[in-house]
Structure to design on (56 residues):
């Protein structure tokens, strides 16, 4: 399953810069991952300072 970003997101943008397929973008109150584009590589989870991206 594609990664999703939880409400713990602090909108720092670290995950967006790390995503190799540009599946992450800024949402209204947190960053969001396009499930259709996500390749489940986990790069976003590896750089997030609060552990917001999780495989769902």
């Amino acid at each position: 399953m594609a990664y999703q970003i939880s409400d713990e997101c602090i909108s720092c943008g670290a995950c967006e810069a790390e995503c190799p397929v540009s599946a992450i973008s800024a949402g209204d109150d947190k960053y969001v991952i396009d499930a259709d584009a996500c390749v489940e590589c986990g790069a976003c989870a590896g750089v997030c300072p609060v552990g917001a991206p999780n495989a769902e």
Notes: Residues 4 and 10 are 14 Å apart (CA to CA).
